[in-house]
Design goal:
Elements: H1 66-69, E1 72-77, H2 83-96, E2 104-108, H3 114-120, H4 124-133, E3 138-141, E4 151-157, H5 163-176, E5 177-185, H6 187-194
């Protein structure tokens, strides 16, 4: 019986679609190339500032921005003993979310924050020089809120002290806060100090 040659293996073009087949041992597989995705659209250029026309000055808005003049007030419920810890957690969260340390002022109504007590041991002049530098979180007694300048964020810890002192300092702390006032303390006491709900 005559032997017939084996039929020739059909050639499959590389670009043909279909299931991926493991190549024979004698052939080497090509490394697949990454498929480029759609190219992002170029961003439009920012609009050019308008030049004032002759005889016309800049137009001022007649409606004041509420968010620019009234800071957001947040209440963190805490006991008098836990108010300082709650304030510390608020500061940590602010720093973790990108707030600059110099943006934050922390006021206490009872015992001073340990940092403030430590820094005051070097004298009041050195202590207030740190405040004026504005490079770091500054901790002060609420009784000194008149001396402290405003910062974007004020954290007010109602950690004890006379109710009258907190009542006098809280409105000033609100005035010192540029964007946010965070009040840490017992809600009933804070609401009685404010005379309304926070």
């Amino acid at each position: 019986m005559p032997l017939t040659p084996a039929p020739e293996e059909p050639q499959i073009h590389e670009s043909a679609q279909g299931p991926r087949v493991t190549p024979a041992a004698s052939r080497t597989a090509q490394t697949p190339r990454p498929v480029p995705g759609p190219r992002p659209a170029p961003r439009p250029a920012p609009p050019a500032p308008r030049k004032p026309q002759a005889g016309r000055g800049p137009v001022a808005s007649t409606t004041p921005s509420v968010s620019a003049s009234v800071p957001q007030v947040q209440l963190i419920p805490a006991s008098a003993e836990g108010a300082l810890d709650a304030a510390e957690e608020a500061v940590d969260l602010l720093l973790d979310t990108g707030r600059a340390p110099g943006d934050i002022l922390v006021l206490t109504t009872g015992d001073p924050h340990p940092w403030a007590a430590h820094e005051l041991s070097f004298g009041e002049a050195a202590y207030w020089a740190l405040h004026d530098a504005g490079d770091d979180v500054f901790y002060a007694d609420a009784a000194h809120v008149q001396r402290a300048s405003g910062r974007p964020v004020v954290v007010f810890a109602v950690n004890g002290g006379p109710v009258d002192a907190a009542a006098a300092a809280l409105p000033v702390a609100l005035a010192r806060a540029g964007a946010i006032l965070i009040v840490c303390g017992e809600p009933q006491r804070i609401n009685s100090v404010l005379g309304a709900g926070v």
